[in-house]
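Here is one chain, start to finish.
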Amino acid sequence: MQSGGDPVRGPRLGVPASACVAVEDSPDGTASAHAAGCAVLVVPSLLPVDPARGRASARSLEEVDLGVLSDCLRRPEASGS
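Its structure:
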């Protein structure tokens, strides 16, 4: 949260982090995106990423389309806030 309780907004997009989907391939990136308040789609690469509530996953980016990204935003506890 920014001062005053306003949701964090991307400086270039002007939207709250909770309206964003981060596509991550590592445990650290996934944790960071979740902590920032983004919905997270995990597409594992070299390191495994443990499943957790509020995270979606795909085996490959070839499986990802706008429908998958929209579903990420509708998942329970999708954001870290």
